[in-house]
Amino acid sequence: MKAKKEILIALLVILTIGLFYYGYGYLKGSNLFANGSTYYAIYGNVAGINNDDPVSVNGYRIGKIRSSTLIAEEDVVILELEISHGGLNIPEDSKAIIANTGLLGGKEIDIQMGSGDAYLQEGDTIVSGTEEDIFSSLSSSLEPFEKKALEAVVSIDSVMHLVQLVLNEQNRKNLQSTMQDAAESMETLNTTSKDLQQMIESESGKIKTIITNLTEVTENFSAISDSLKDIKFNETIERVNNSLDGANSILEKINKGEGTMGKLVNNDSLYMHLNAASKNLDLLLIDFKENPKRYVHFSVFGKKDKSKK
Prior knowledge:
Layout: H1 2-27, E1 37-43, E2 54-57, E3 60-71, E4 76-83, E5 95-100, E6 107-112, E7 125-130, H2 134-166, H3 169-202, H4 204-230, H5 233-256, H6 259-266, H7 269-290
Parallel strand pairs: 1-7, 2-6, 5-7
Antiparallel strand pairs: 1-4, 2-3, 3-4, 5-6
Helix pairs in contact: 5-6
């Protein structure tokens, strides 16, 4: 009877220890009765992730980090991922990303499932990656504004330096002199404007006369333009063209030697006759000069010259 009680007590202790171990493993993410798989991921920086941190897919926990090992020679950390979700196939092009779980710095391994047809086998290594934390993202987002703020500060510093240069004593005197010159120029311009106004008022009668004359000239030009519209320019141009055609026809006939003008222009016989006549006339004048008595008979007593002609 006593041995039976001891056996019952031993069984109760073993059952209690088993339940405690199962409960502790369940709380840590392990399922003793699940048909799980083990995979590995290699990281250059684990970003503060620890053992027993969850492994999830789309926010659903499928396992945990069983262990982590530092390989000092290669300066990397190998994480052993325990996937307790039975029947889950992970494509080979999937990635194990170290992701943030909240603002307080919690970490997990987020499995981003790939789309390939080939799947990882037990003990394979999955492609790894790291997600930027909120502070890194915030820093990256604020970096352009930081640069702009720095540029603005530099610009303000440059402006203040220029203001200091402008506001020194010499520049203040120059500025005062410039403002005085500008005031004098405005006063001169005001005086000129008044003189111009007085001149316009005094010459308003002449200006009106000029405007009236311009109006009359415009009306006359309008009347002339109306008259010009009545002229038949096309008929006039056509007559001029006809006259030019006629003149071209006459010149063409002359060039061909047709008619009296054509013969005179193109035949050199007239030139030859005129040349011969000129030579004969020249000979006649020479003979007349040498022997004038042959051509002119003059006697005071009325006698006749009986010399042989």
